[in-house]
Amino acid sequence: MIFTPLGYRFTVSIMSETATAEARPYHHGDLRRALIAAARRLLEAEGPSALSLRAVAREAGVSPAAPYHHFKDKSELLDAVAHEGWEMLNAALASARVDTQSTHDKLVALGVAYVCFARDNPSVYRVMYNSSRDREDLSPALKETGAYRQVRDALMAGADPVDHVGLELATSAAWCAAHGLAEMASFRQFDQIKATVGGEEAFFRGLFGHMRVFPDEPAE
Amino acid sequence: MIFTPLGYRFTVSIMSETATAEARPYHHGDLRRALIAAARRLLEAEGPSALSLRAVAREAGVSPAAPYHHFKDKSELLDAVAHEGWEMLNAALASARVDTQSTHDKLVALGVAYVCFARDNPSVYRVMYNSSRDREDLSPALKETGAYRQVRDALMAGADPVDHVGLELATSAAWCAAHGLAEMASFRQFDQIKATVGGEEAFFRGLFGHMRVFPDEPAE
DNA sequence: TGTACATCAGTGAACGCGCGTTCACTGATGTAC
DNA sequence: TGTACATCAGTGAACGCGCGTTCACTGATGTAC
Q1: Which pTM value belongs to this model?
Q2: What is the CATH number of domain B25-72?
Q3: Residues of chain B with pLDDT under 70
Q4: Do A165 and B193 touch (CB under 8 A)?
């Protein structure tokens, strides 16, 4: 890289064609993604109440009006954050499900993965939850790989006679249990028992190990 | 009650000594309670995001500065709303527990009561949840009659050898499940299955009926 | 290959708004003599 | 029983703030000829 009196600008514009712009040219390159990432950063650093559109723009190093070229309004940005969150969660669940044998182990593994995601991304998880509320359906793409589907599939493998209603109830029960623990995982009130059973993840595992969502599900 | 040219004011001031003031004299009488009630009304009518101190004062028919004679700041008002919510919830649980025999029935009854409270007071429930977060302990009075305690007592009656850690895990599991369902109870995604099993409360009952928090808990 | 021009994706100033909180005030109430 | 006075619990105007969103603008990019 050669610096000449006019070289800086020139160099940068070359760079922005080959790699992601670093010294930030006028056009950002992928502001949409950058805004979502900034929102996630802000959420986990400051909590959901600190997430304003202006703050996100600030965090992304861009003017307050810039996001409006990529999102209709604030809620559309939040939806995008939630969508990305679901994709990450679904991927985490899918990989947790891989190396387990019994249905019960699969369910525990799914539950622990779910809760760990929520523990590591509590504010994003909250945004995901809020954006699911009042929504008849998630996007089709999410539905196919979704948490609900993954839990139901795991359950289905373990249920002998496929009782449709029972399966839905069991899936809902499992999902509710996971959501409940996900939200409460960081309650200070659990500090003592976490220590007693040997750490947070052991606590999660113990909880899910205690639960049965099918009346006839065998104990371990 | 006699109306004279000067009578109105006089009558009111008499009234305020005998009954709760209705035509509202200068001094309110019990603004603290009125503010909490106004907050609950606002919460359930407009949702948590609409709850500002100014709005609460407005709803109570009082100037924006008035609440500061009763609460240090906004968060202290929210704490009071949460506290009242816990009292109501605890009372609902206590009365649900009364006329059931088996441990399993008791647990289902507790779970259904818990979830119905959250369904009927979703925004207050959210405030309660938020105010519990990051708090090592609730107030001692709440603890004694609290949800956790009631669930644990119900479980204890059913567990033969009292395994302390197991009991705590089971209580936590039950609480998480209840919280999870409480939060998700109104999800549109459950509309279909609710209809299938015969209504919302049947859905709740079905879910809790499906769950076991003790591995060896007998099926119904 | 150059050039004119449309379009895209930024800027930064400005809008109106409701918020939490403070302030000096005042009307009502309780109390001591 | 009356009166002086302290205290309590309101009022309403004002503060500074950050927000979501709009606007006219401009620099950068892509495209047709």
Answers
A1: 0.86
A2: 1.10.10.60
A3: 1-26, 134, 136-141, 159-162, 214-220
A4: yes
